[in-house]
Amino acid sequence: MIPPAPVLLALAAPGLDLELSFSQAMQGLGLSAQLAHILWLPLPMLLVLVAAVIGVLVTVWLERKISAAAQQRIGPEYAGALGILQPMADGLKLLVKEDVIPARADALLFTLGPVLVLIPVILSWLIVPFGQNLLISNVGIGIFLWISLSSIQPIGLLMSGYASNNKYSLLGGLRAAAQSISYEIPLALSVLAIVMMSNSLSTVDIVQQQNTAGLLSWNVWRQPIGFLIFWICALAECERLPFDLPEAEEELVAGYQTEYAGMKFALFYLGSYINLILSALLVSVLYLGGWGFPIPVEWLASLLGQSIDSPFVQVFTGSMGIMMTIIKAYLLVFLAILLRWTTPRVRIDQLLDLGWKFLLPISLVNLLFTAALKLAFPLAFGG
Amino acid sequence: MTIATSTELICFLILGTVVILGAIGVVLLSNIVYSAFLLGGVFMAVAGIYLLLNASFVAAAQVLVYVGAVNVLILFAIMLVNKREDLKPIEGLRLRKFLSGGVCFGLLALLIRVDISTPWAIPGPPAIGEKATERIGEHLFTDYLLPFELASVLLLMAMIGAIVLARRDVLLTDVGTGDSVDQGLIEKTTNPLLVDKSTP
């Protein structure tokens, strides 16, 4: 699925082309240019994979600590300072557990299901920008790629639900897929309103269009309704509370992952947390200005008497851009965790009513309204 | 041969094999759930071929519509009515298989004939790459406006039909059996039994 576009991962500064310097270093060791290119190709992907897994470990630790605080407990304490190694221990435990495939289950589909759930989520990280040129691939269809990739996930859910050969798993899989499909539509419609304002599907263009006047030009002010719809739908897509009906760990049999153990279960777990971080990153990209500062960088640079093009300023803004993206994303993750431990769960009929009878019409009206505003005030709404 | 072209060739060969073998599997496998999942794989491989042809928007739309919507709906339908029953042997099955195989091979022969006899321009027009999205939008709202709108009307009709079939309470007789619908049962489904709203 990776388009044959040039894979680049270089800082914004014109003098800092990481691929070029890597290739030169490799050629200095006596390798051909083509071989250096082949060696370079997996590096950005590996980097993003590692970043995603570390992000999951941090989120799991946050979830444990924040839930403990919300319930006036202490939470993990002994594994490392403040229990920071606890997620590692969890992961290791799942890694060495026995991998059980139920006797009457369909072994092939049973194995393939979790993989199909995880792969689209990881592939979607292709389009998440951490800076001007800090993304794996600036594909032109950007955000549309994410929407289409996330529509593959229900197949994995249905597959694992069916292959477990357990009626609760099958029901859980069907429910999860139904939920995922119904919340995809308002999600796509609210993304469409953003795309209409920035005249591009590319995530880089969407962020750049928001960074003209710092905090004030972020899309959240122009699309407050879209922001709320997107956040609600993203929570529903990640199966987080208040929409975690497919799992409902306290009340129901745990849905499509009932029969899973060991690493296969860990794949579901990993997938849901990577999806949560991805959703938070995309909310910050689409609505909160991505890598942009609350105060425009140009103003700061001129205030300090520095040229915006000088290498030092470029490196500084590049690394600060990564920090800003991560801070915004983790604020949203914090909000999601807080919501999980403080809100009650909706019923399945309330869930579907909310999706189809409330969010869908509102997001349609939001789209029409955005189109009208774009025609009426092309200056403020991206003519 | 550079790395790019050889990679392209290898990808094309793999995708082509997956499409052909997968499509044969969809038709020949006896387990309908396997067929449905394989169909999803075939759709994905077709999307991969679109990607190789520099049509990334079409590829993403293919995944969204065919894998994300059509295939998921097929799976839903199969899993909701997944009855393990032994089908009655159909009379003259051998003849029917022979006839349908003949029709399929005729179609294949026709397509191969078209493929060979058409003077293809090689190399084709240059790919417009990222501009494709805008170009597709322009075409949809100018010269392909009528088919586009007709398709939407068709979808609307299908949706209304589905709603009528699903909401049995608008019909007096059952669509499948022709019996009169038990109106009392419908009353019960519209008033949830678990939530008693009469008590204050």
Question: Could you describe the 3D structure shown?
Answer:
The complex is a heterodimer of chains A (383) and B (200). Chain A has helices at residues 18-28, 33-40, 42-70, 86-96, 107-123, 142-150, 153-163, 167-198, 203-210, 219-222, 224-237, 262-286, 297-303, 311-342, 348-376. Chain A starts with 17 loop residues before the first helix and ends in a 7-residue tail after the last helix. Chain A has 15 helices and no strands. Chain A has 383 residues and is an all-alpha fold. Chain B is extended. Chain B is mostly helical. The chains are: A mainly alpha (383), B mainly alpha (200). Chain A binds chain B through residues 1, 3-4, 34, 37-38, 109, 139-141, 144-145, 147-149, 151-152, 154-155, 158-159, 161-162, 170, 173-174, 177-178, 181, 184, 201, and chain B through 2-4, 7-8, 33, 37, 40, 44, 47-48, 51-52, 56-57, 60-61, 63-64, 67-69, 71-72, 75-76, 79-80, 129-130, 132-133.
Quick recap of the structure?
By secondary structure, chain A is an all-alpha fold. Chain A has helices at 18-28, 33-40, 42-70, 86-96, 107-123, 142-150, 153-163, 167-198, 203-210, 219-222, 224-237, 262-286, 297-303, 311-342, 348-376.
User: What is the straight-line distance between the termini of chain A?
Assistant: 33 Å
Order of helices and strands of chain B: HHHHHHH
CATH superfamily of the largest domain in chain B: NADH-ubiquinone/plastoquinone oxidoreductase chain 6, subunit NuoJ
Chain-averaged pLDDT of chain A: 84
Shape of chain B: extended
What's the total helix number of chain A?
A: 15
**On the 0-100 scale, what is the average pLDDT of chain B?**
83
